[in-house]
Design goal:
- Strand 4 and strand 5 form a beta hairpin.
- The chain has 2 domains: 124 residues, Rossmann fold; 99 residues, LytTr DNA-binding domain (OB fold (Dihydrolipoamide Acetyltransferase, E2P), Beta Barrel).
- The strands form 5 sheets. Strands 2-1-3-6-7 form a 5-stranded parallel beta sheet. A 5-stranded antiparallel beta sheet has the order 12-11-10-14-13. The protein has a 3-stranded antiparallel beta sheet with strand order 15-16-17, with no helix packed on it.
- Helix 2 runs parallel beside helix 3.
- The mean pLDDT is 87.
- The chain has 7 helices and 17 strands.
- 30% of the residues lie in helices and 34% in strands.
- By secondary structure, the chain is of the alpha/beta class.
Length: 243
Amino acid sequence: MNLRAILVEDEENSREILRNYLSKYCPKVQLLGEASNVEEALVLIRNNDLDLVFLDVEMPYGNAFDLLDKVGDRQFETVFVTAYNHYAIDALNAHASYYLLKPISIDKLIEAVDYVSEIKEKENSLQNAVLKPVQAQVTGKITIPLQNGFEVLQIEDILYCQADDNYTNIFLKDKKRLVSKTLKYFEDTLNGSGFARVHKSYLVNVNAITEYKKGKGGSVVLSNGKQIMVSPSKKKELLAYFS
């Protein structure tokens, strides 16, 4: 599928390089416009139905994070392009799908475009489909430690797990348990049981998902009404659970 995109970069030379790379190596990207600052970018974003925004971090009269704050909720993916690697964490927190360092690697650029393309194709194919998890309901049990022994939990009763430093909150259908194990421990323990790591802080039972919402980074709604943001780096993995 074609990706409707804009390029936001204050340096003309950098815009030209990226524009030429996209034209030569990423033919599925359809550039609808270019902007050199936040205000120009806002106009393009509000006047176009976009799939992807290539976004420099530092610009006149504001930066990439100012722009995304002004945009608010969004359905396009973002690829950050910058010469400074210290913005990586901020980019992830701003729900960037990919982070490219200048000078741009052609291979990494192609990888970023392919990543966004796969996400968009999957989202579009599932838009009007009747969804069901690829993996059937899994039965089984796990044990969690208690001060005076252990408790047995039915895996199917676990809705999601939330990281709390070196502890994990386990949310079940009718109760919550705090366990002195990391979220990574439960990710490994529940591997193959229909649980997806959708965020650095959340592991969810795919069978408990009742709704997927496109948006800033995407989110899932669980059967208890809990809405959990999906990290862009985990979105592709999550969507693969559905057919």
